[in-house]
Protein backbone atom coordinates (compact mmCIF):
# COMPACT_ATOMS: atom_id res chain seq x y z
CA UNK A 1 0.00 0.00 0.00
CA UNK A 2 1.50 3.37 -1.00
CA UNK A 3 1.67 6.10 1.70
CA UNK A 4 -1.26 8.51 1.86
CA UNK A 5 -1.52 12.24 2.51
CA UNK A 6 -2.72 12.66 6.10
CA UNK A 7 -4.88 15.66 5.23
CA UNK A 8 -7.85 13.29 4.94
CA UNK A 9 -7.87 12.59 8.70
CA UNK A 10 -5.92 15.44 10.33
CA UNK A 11 -9.02 17.40 11.38
CA UNK A 12 -11.32 14.42 12.00
CA UNK A 13 -12.15 14.02 15.70
CA UNK A 14 -15.28 11.90 15.49
CA UNK A 15 -17.49 10.01 13.08
CA UNK A 16 -20.17 12.49 11.99
CA UNK A 17 -23.83 11.50 12.28
CA UNK A 18 -26.23 13.05 9.75
CA UNK A 19 -29.71 12.62 8.35
CA UNK A 20 -31.78 14.15 5.54
CA UNK A 21 -28.57 14.79 3.59
CA UNK A 22 -28.83 15.45 -0.14
CA UNK A 23 -26.58 13.75 -2.70
CA UNK A 24 -25.03 17.14 -3.42
CA UNK A 25 -24.17 17.84 0.23
CA UNK A 26 -22.99 14.28 0.75
CA UNK A 27 -20.68 14.54 -2.25
CA UNK A 28 -19.20 17.88 -1.23
CA UNK A 29 -18.47 16.84 2.37
CA UNK A 30 -18.09 13.08 2.61
CA UNK A 31 -18.20 11.06 -0.60
CA UNK A 32 -14.54 11.28 -1.63
CA UNK A 33 -12.94 13.17 1.26
CA UNK A 34 -12.07 10.14 3.38
CA UNK A 35 -14.16 11.56 6.25
CA UNK A 36 -16.27 8.76 7.83
CA UNK A 37 -19.97 9.37 8.43
CA UNK A 38 -23.10 7.59 9.60
CA UNK A 39 -26.34 8.38 7.77
CA UNK A 40 -29.31 7.70 10.06
CA UNK A 41 -32.03 7.53 7.41
CA UNK A 42 -30.27 5.83 4.53
CA UNK A 43 -32.53 2.76 4.47
CA UNK A 44 -35.86 4.45 3.79
CA UNK A 45 -38.46 2.14 2.22
CA UNK A 46 -36.26 -0.95 2.58
CA UNK A 47 -37.96 -4.20 3.62
CA UNK A 48 -34.66 -5.90 4.50
CA UNK A 49 -35.10 -5.11 8.20
CA UNK A 50 -38.28 -7.20 8.28
CA UNK A 51 -37.06 -9.97 5.98
CA UNK A 52 -33.33 -10.63 6.40
CA UNK A 53 -32.35 -13.23 9.00
CA UNK A 54 -30.07 -16.24 9.25
CA UNK A 55 -33.03 -18.42 8.31
CA UNK A 56 -33.81 -16.28 5.25
CA UNK A 57 -30.27 -16.56 3.87
CA UNK A 58 -30.06 -20.24 4.78
CA UNK A 59 -33.24 -21.03 2.88
CA UNK A 60 -32.29 -18.86 -0.10
CA UNK A 61 -28.80 -20.27 -0.54
CA UNK A 62 -29.69 -23.85 0.40
CA UNK A 63 -32.22 -23.78 -2.40
CA UNK A 64 -29.44 -22.61 -4.72
CA UNK A 65 -26.90 -25.13 -3.40
CA UNK A 66 -29.41 -27.92 -3.74
CA UNK A 67 -30.01 -27.08 -7.36
CA UNK A 68 -27.82 -27.62 -10.37
CA UNK A 69 -24.05 -28.00 -10.28
CA UNK A 70 -23.81 -24.76 -12.24
CA UNK A 71 -25.56 -22.89 -9.40
CA UNK A 72 -23.10 -24.29 -6.87
CA UNK A 73 -20.20 -23.36 -9.15
CA UNK A 74 -21.45 -19.77 -9.44
CA UNK A 75 -21.47 -19.31 -5.67
CA UNK A 76 -18.08 -20.96 -5.21
CA UNK A 77 -16.57 -18.19 -7.35
CA UNK A 78 -17.74 -15.62 -4.79
CA UNK A 79 -15.47 -14.70 -1.88
CA UNK A 80 -16.15 -16.17 1.56
CA UNK A 81 -14.65 -14.91 4.83
CA UNK A 82 -14.80 -17.43 7.72
CA UNK A 83 -13.03 -15.14 10.22
CA UNK A 84 -12.60 -17.06 13.51
CA UNK A 85 -14.90 -19.94 12.65
CA UNK A 86 -14.32 -23.44 11.37
CA UNK A 87 -16.48 -22.96 8.29
CA UNK A 88 -14.76 -23.57 4.97
CA UNK A 89 -17.56 -22.39 2.72
CA UNK A 90 -20.78 -20.39 2.70
CA UNK A 91 -22.61 -23.69 2.30
CA UNK A 92 -21.24 -24.90 5.65
CA UNK A 93 -21.92 -21.59 7.40
CA UNK A 94 -25.55 -21.46 6.30
CA UNK A 95 -26.31 -25.07 7.19
CA UNK A 96 -24.92 -25.19 10.74
CA UNK A 97 -27.25 -26.85 13.20
CA UNK A 98 -29.14 -25.19 16.03
CA UNK A 99 -26.65 -26.54 18.57
CA UNK A 100 -23.69 -24.94 16.76
CA UNK A 101 -25.56 -21.65 16.40
CA UNK A 102 -26.12 -21.38 20.14
CA UNK A 103 -23.10 -23.04 21.76
CA UNK A 104 -20.42 -20.49 20.73
CA UNK A 105 -20.14 -17.23 18.76
CA UNK A 106 -19.93 -17.18 14.97
CA UNK A 107 -19.32 -14.48 12.37
CA UNK A 108 -18.73 -14.72 8.63
CA UNK A 109 -19.12 -12.73 5.44
CA UNK A 110 -19.40 -13.26 1.72
CA UNK A 111 -19.63 -11.44 -1.57
CA UNK A 112 -22.85 -11.87 -3.48
CA UNK A 113 -21.43 -12.06 -6.97
CA UNK A 114 -24.24 -14.17 -8.45
CA UNK A 115 -26.72 -12.06 -10.40
CA UNK A 116 -29.69 -14.38 -9.89
CA UNK A 117 -29.37 -14.33 -6.10
CA UNK A 118 -28.68 -10.59 -6.18
CA UNK A 119 -32.00 -10.04 -7.93
CA UNK A 120 -33.79 -11.73 -5.01
CA UNK A 121 -31.88 -9.79 -2.35
CA UNK A 122 -32.28 -6.41 -4.03
CA UNK A 123 -36.03 -6.66 -3.83
CA UNK A 124 -35.50 -5.75 -0.17
CA UNK A 125 -32.93 -2.94 -0.41
CA UNK A 126 -31.59 -0.48 -2.95
CA UNK A 127 -28.63 1.74 -3.57
CA UNK A 128 -28.71 4.47 -0.86
CA UNK A 129 -30.31 7.58 -2.31
CA UNK A 130 -27.81 9.93 -0.64
CA UNK A 131 -24.96 8.66 -2.84
CA UNK A 132 -23.88 11.00 -5.66
CA UNK A 133 -25.72 10.38 -8.90
CA UNK A 134 -22.46 10.16 -10.84
CA UNK A 135 -20.92 7.58 -8.48
CA UNK A 136 -20.45 4.02 -9.66
CA UNK A 137 -22.80 1.15 -8.83
CA UNK A 138 -20.94 -2.06 -8.05
CA UNK A 139 -22.58 -5.29 -9.22
CA UNK A 140 -21.19 -7.06 -6.13
CA UNK A 141 -22.63 -6.65 -2.65
CA UNK A 142 -21.09 -7.80 0.64
CA UNK A 143 -23.01 -9.44 3.47
CA UNK A 144 -21.70 -9.91 7.03
CA UNK A 145 -23.56 -11.79 9.73
CA UNK A 146 -22.76 -13.00 13.22
CA UNK A 147 -23.31 -13.06 16.96
CA UNK A 148 -22.01 -11.08 19.91
CA UNK A 149 -18.29 -11.13 20.64
CA UNK A 150 -16.94 -11.71 17.15
CA UNK A 151 -16.29 -9.53 14.11
CA UNK A 152 -13.58 -8.61 11.64
CA UNK A 153 -9.96 -8.15 12.79
CA UNK A 154 -8.14 -4.84 12.32
CA UNK A 155 -7.31 -4.49 8.63
CA UNK A 156 -7.34 -2.21 5.61
CA UNK A 157 -9.06 -3.17 2.37
CA UNK A 158 -7.70 -3.25 -1.15
CA UNK A 159 -10.78 -2.42 -3.19
CA UNK A 160 -11.33 0.12 -5.92
CA UNK A 161 -13.68 2.60 -4.26
CA UNK A 162 -15.05 3.87 -0.93
CA UNK A 163 -17.74 1.72 0.69
CA UNK A 164 -21.10 1.95 2.40
CA UNK A 165 -22.39 -0.64 4.85
CA UNK A 166 -25.98 -0.72 6.08
CA UNK A 167 -26.76 -2.18 9.51
CA UNK A 168 -29.92 -4.20 8.96
CA UNK A 169 -30.15 -5.94 12.34
CA UNK A 170 -28.17 -5.95 15.57
CA UNK A 171 -25.43 -3.52 16.60
CA UNK A 172 -21.78 -3.45 15.65
CA UNK A 173 -18.89 -1.54 17.21
CA UNK A 174 -16.51 -0.06 14.64
CA UNK A 175 -12.94 0.81 15.66
CA UNK A 176 -11.10 3.07 13.21
CA UNK A 177 -7.38 3.81 13.12
CA UNK A 178 -5.44 6.05 10.73
CA UNK A 179 -2.69 4.46 8.62
CA UNK A 180 0.74 4.19 10.30
CA UNK A 181 2.17 7.22 8.52
CA UNK A 182 -0.65 9.34 10.05
CA UNK A 183 -0.51 7.88 13.56
CA UNK A 184 0.82 11.06 15.20
CA UNK A 185 -1.37 13.42 13.18
CA UNK A 186 -4.78 11.74 13.31
CA UNK A 187 -7.00 10.15 15.94
CA UNK A 188 -8.39 6.67 16.44
CA UNK A 189 -12.18 6.52 16.86
CA UNK A 190 -14.93 4.15 17.91
CA UNK A 191 -18.64 4.23 17.18
CA UNK A 192 -21.53 1.81 17.50
CA UNK A 193 -23.65 1.38 14.38
CA UNK A 194 -27.32 0.64 15.07
CA UNK A 195 -30.15 -0.86 13.01
CA UNK A 196 -31.17 1.59 10.30
CA UNK A 197 -27.73 3.26 10.21
CA UNK A 198 -25.49 3.29 7.15
CA UNK A 199 -21.79 3.87 7.74
CA UNK A 200 -19.78 5.29 4.85
CA UNK A 201 -16.04 4.81 4.99
CA UNK A 202 -13.02 4.65 2.71
CA UNK A 203 -11.77 1.28 3.93
CA UNK A 204 -8.72 1.57 1.68
CA UNK A 205 -7.18 4.23 3.96
CA UNK A 206 -8.85 3.75 7.36
CA UNK A 207 -7.77 0.64 9.26
CA UNK A 208 -10.89 -0.82 10.81
CA UNK A 209 -12.20 -3.68 12.89
CA UNK A 210 -15.72 -4.59 13.95
CA UNK A 211 -17.31 -6.43 16.85
CA UNK A 212 -20.94 -7.46 17.27
CA UNK A 213 -22.19 -5.97 20.56
CA UNK A 214 -25.89 -6.84 20.49
CA UNK A 215 -27.82 -9.87 21.70
CA UNK A 216 -29.58 -9.93 18.34
CA UNK A 217 -27.73 -11.37 15.35
CA UNK A 218 -25.93 -8.64 13.42
CA UNK A 219 -26.65 -8.46 9.69
CA UNK A 220 -25.06 -5.86 7.44
CA UNK A 221 -25.01 -5.42 3.70
CA UNK A 222 -22.85 -3.07 1.72
CA UNK A 223 -21.07 -2.25 -1.49
CA UNK A 224 -18.66 0.19 -3.13
CA UNK A 225 -19.62 3.42 -4.88
TrEMBL record:
Limits of the Cupin-like domain: 23-181
A Pfam family of this chain: Cupin_8
Signal peptide: none
InterPro entries recorded: Cupin_8, JMJD6_ArgDemeth/LysHydrox
A GO MF label: 2-oxoglutarate-dependent dioxygenase activity
Transmembrane annotation, as ranges: none
PANTHER family xrefs: ARGININE DEMETHYLASE AND LYSYL-HYDROXYLASE JMJD, CUPIN-LIKE DOMAIN-CONTAINING PROTEIN
Protein name per Swiss-Prot or TrEMBL: Cupin-like domain-containing protein
Lineage, top ranks: Eukaryota, Metazoa, Ecdysozoa, Arthropoda, Crustacea
Amino acid sequence: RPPVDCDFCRDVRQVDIVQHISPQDFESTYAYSGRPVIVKDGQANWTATDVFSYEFFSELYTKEFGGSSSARSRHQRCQFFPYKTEFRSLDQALTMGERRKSERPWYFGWSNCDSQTADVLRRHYSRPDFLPERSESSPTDWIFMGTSGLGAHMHVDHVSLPSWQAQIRGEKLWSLEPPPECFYQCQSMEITVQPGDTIVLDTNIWYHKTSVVSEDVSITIGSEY
